[in-house]
Write a structure and sequence with these properties.
It is built from four helices and four strands, in the order αββααββα. The chain is α+β, with helices and mostly antiparallel strands. It has a single domain, classed as K homology (KH) domain (GMP Synthetase, Chain A, domain 3, 2-Layer Sandwich), CATH 3.30.300.20. A hairpin with a 4-residue loop joins strand 1 and strand 2. It is globular and about 40 Å long.
Length: 103
């Protein structure tokens, strides 16, 4: 799953060498990109971030795995902060997506 998420994010950004994707043992995937690419990864009203989460969830559903995806943003002090974090209930599919997956 990590490779898929990295591929999707790398296709979206300009500074491809700054993309970092880390997966831990709890199926949490953390994405970090350059500050200038944050808007491309999160999107207006978080739509791109939600689409990345939906794709990961749909692909992980077949083997019965559930992934959580967080996007980190560099802060002014040289550290990082969470820019987009999956919220409870955000994981729900709409019926159209479920119908597409069953086909």
């Amino acid at each position: 799953m990590k490779e898929l998420v990295k591929y999707i994010v790398t296709c979206l950004v300009d500074e491809k060498d700054k993309v970092e994707v880390v997966e831990d043992e709890n199926k949490r995937i953390t994405i970090s990109v350059a500050q200038s690419d944050m808007g491309k990864v999160i999107g207006k009203q978080g739509k791109v971030a939600k689409a990345i989460r939906t794709a990961a969830r749909a692909i992980g559903q077949k083997p019965g795995e559930r992934y959580t995806i967080d996007i980190l943003e560099p802060d002014e002090k040289g550290g990082v902060k969470v820019a987009s974090q999956e919220k409870e209930g955000e994981a729900e599919y709409d019926t159209d997506l479920e119908a597409m997956l069953e086909e």
